[in-house]
TrEMBL record:
Alphabetical list of NCBIfam families matching this protein: four helix bundle protein
One Pfam family from the record: 23S_rRNA_IVP
Taxon lineage: Bacteria, Candidatus Zambryskiibacteriota
Protein name in UniProt: Four helix bundle protein
Amino acid sequence: MTQTGKKYDLEERTAKFGESVIVLCRKVRQDNIISPIVNQLVRAATSVGANYMEANGASSRKDFINKIFICKKEIQETKHWLRMLKSSQPAID
C-alpha cells in the first residue's frame, strides 16, 4: 500500500501497460518501416510484465534483483521504441 492507501499492484499495472501498447499498435497503419518498430515495441512492452511475474517467483533475493533489473531494461527499450514510433507517425499522440 502507498501512503495514500492505494494498492500499488505492479503485476496489474505492468499487464495493463502491455495491453495499452498493444491497443496503440493496432491503430498504427503499418508499412515496411513501421512494422519492425511495432514488433519491437510490443515485444519490449509486454516483456516488462512477464519479467515482473518472473521476479515475483524468484528463487532468491539475487534472482529477484536480476529480474527487476531486466524489467528496468525492457522499460528503457520500450521508451526508445515509442520514440521511434512517434517520429515515424507524427500524428500519434
